[in-house]
Write a structure and sequence with these properties.
With 65 residues, the protein is mainly alpha-helical. The protein has one domain: Butyryl-CoA Dehydrogenase, subunit A, domain 3. 65% of the residues lie in helices and 0% in strands. The relative contact order is 0.16.
Length: 65
């Protein structure tokens, strides 16, 4: 659960940071571009967010379709 929550929160906040910074967010001078790239890959690495939701629901005893 922590991996899912952390990665989804990181992706959401880095997206908001890019919106705030605008074009400067893509510049290599600022760390925002690195955070944005890292947040996109972290939601996929070690199991996608959807796979994490499936694992959590099965652990809770819910039927997954």
């Amino acid at each position: 659960m922590a991996k899912l929550f952390g990665s989804e929160t990181y992706a959401r906040l880095s997206n908001q940071g890019m919106q705030i910074m605008g074009g400067y967010g893509y510049s290599l001078e600022y760390d925002m571009q690195r955070h944005f790239r890292d947040s996109r890959i972290i939601t996929v690495s070690a199991g996608s967010s959807q796979m994490q939701r499936t694992v959590i629901s099965r652990a809770m005893g819910l039927k997954v379709v």
